[in-house]
TrEMBL record:
The lineage of its organism: Bacteria, Bacillati, Actinomycetota, Actinomycetes, Pseudonocardiales. Residues 31-51 are annotated as: Disordered. It comes from the Bacteria. This is Integrase core domain-containing protein.
Length: 97
């Protein structure tokens, strides 16, 4: 409690924006849990699992691939089944064309 400035050495962040659309893009992949159509346990409660089990429904994870243009802040996203190299490359091709 001396009144001394603690963060005097902290400088403000350097902000930038690219001049043209597509010059700099940011890409991210987020893994999310897959829910069956119509919702899961939270929507319908706990019911007899053997009676309602549908083996054709694949429960697991999907990946949300997103790309944001730095100049225009335009965002493009797709939900895809995985985050493998070929999937990401195909997503990037679709996003920038």
């Amino acid at each position: 409690m001396t009144g001394e400035v603690i963060r005097a050495s902290k400088t403000t962040a350097v902000r930038y924006e690219r001049d043209r659309p597509g010059e700099l893009v940011r890409m991210d992949v987020k893994k999310i849990g897959r829910s069956p159509d119509g919702g899961g346990r939270r929507a319908h409660g706990r019911v007899n699992r053997e009676a309602t089990r549908d083996r054709s429904v694949k429960v697991g994870f999907d990946s949300v691939h997103s790309l944001v243009d730095d100049h225009s802040r335009l965002a493009y996203s797709e939900i895809l089944p995985d985050e493998k190299e070929q999937t990401c490359a195909a997503f990037l091709t679709r996003a920038i064309t």
